[in-house]
Amino acid sequence: MPQMRQLPYFAHDRSLVQGKVQKNLGGNRRNHTKQQLKTLAMPLYKITVKKQWRSAGQLIEPGMSVQVSTDILGDPILINGGQLVRGAFLHIYGVDLQEMRALNRLVLASERIG
């Protein structure tokens, strides 16, 4: 009769594995997941104008800023052609950065704030 191989402890008792996972996540597993969603799923960026730019009969000046949140990790100025940033500046200041050719890192700076 063949001998049965002993299975690792986690194959027998799932609660031991769940306890270890919960301990590695730093406490309450549900709260940790909510925190991850807040910081990773919808990061908040502050987009600020670095230098004065005149083009197409419009003007932007240093200090003008907007806040945008995106579900994609990365710089919102570069992602999807900067359409999120363009829409925010158009809504708040009434200037079209794409028409001004100012939708780039030379003119704009992004900072993750949340």
Structure, explained:
There is one protein chain. The chain is α+β, with helices and mostly antiparallel strands. The chain has 2 domains: 1-41, no CATH class; 42-112, no CATH class. The protein has helices at residues 9-12, 14-25, 29-41, 83-92, 97-100, and strands at 44-49, 53-55, 58-60, 65-69, 108-112. The strands form 2 sheets. It has a 3-stranded antiparallel β-sheet with strand order 4-1-5, covered by helices on one side. The radius of gyration is 24 Å and the shape is globular. Residues 7-25 have low confidence and may be disordered.
Terminal CA distance:
62 Å
List unreliable stretches of 5+ residues: 7-25
Q: What is the C-alpha radius of gyration, as a whole number of Å?
A: 24 Å
Tell me what portion of residues adopts beta-strand conformation: 15-25%
Strand order of the largest sheet: 4-1-5
Count of helical regions:
5
Count of folded domains: 2
Number of strands: 5
The average pLDDT is 78
How would you sum up the global shape?
globular
Question: By helix and strand content, what is the structural category?
Answer: alpha+beta
Order of helices and strands: HHHEEEEHHE
